[in-house]
Specification:
single chain; 10 helices; about 0% strand
Length: about 180
């Protein structure tokens, strides 16, 4: 088994900087942006399309940022599924950025991959809702192992990470790799 290689990607970093320059919350998520970029540079360095690689980095960063009860409540993320399908001018800028990213996944991934990425994002929101009392910074106490497992399965979002491997420009037909999906 080969070790992953880290290759600094100035084009990716420049693209990310360009995209997040209009986000009013970007300065609050610098650590998550760095994590997302590093993950894209290391784990997905075979991706040739810079916008696809940027989408991976931003997906990771946006969901890592949301993985905090305080941020989740502050951006009103529990309303994201409704806002995804019924946008409002009152939506937080964070939710607008997340919506725009998720709805563009079909540009970079075939239908199965894009669907799985969107679905996993929605599942993550549900998992976060089960982890905290809505509107409060208080964790819901799990009383059964099944609840703990459900909560972790919803917010674990592994599916996008295997879908990210097969960008649409190189693998336009899911049948080429569908049997490899765990």
């Amino acid at each position: 088994m080969t070790q992953p290689t880290y290759t600094y990607d100035p084009a990716l970093r420049s693209r990310i900087k360009e995209i997040v320059s209009s986000w009013d919350f970007a300065h609050d998520m610098r650590a998550q942006l760095l994590t997302g970029v590093t993950l894209a540079e290391t784990s997905y360095n075979h991706i040739t399309n810079i916008d696809t690689k940027a989408a991976i980095a931003l997906y990771c960063a946006l969901f890592a940022y949301l993985d905090s009860i305080e941020v989740f409540n502050a951006v009103d993320a529990k309303c994201f599924p409704r806002q995804l399908y019924c946008p409002s001018p009152d939506d937080s800028s964070y939710l607008v950025a997340l919506r725009e990213l998720l709805l563009r996944m079909w540009e970079w991934y075939p239908d199965f991959g894009a669907n799985a990425i969107l679905y996993s994002g929605l599942q993550f929101i549900n998992g976060c809702m089960l982890e905290s009392v809505p509107g409060q910074s208080k964790v819901i106490q799990a009383r059964t192992l099944e609840f703990v497992e459900l909560r972790r399965n919803l917010s674990g979002i592994p599916d996008p990470f295997f879908c990210f491997i097969w960008e649409k420009s190189l693998f336009p037909d899911e049948r080429l790799y569908a049997e490899l999906i765990p």
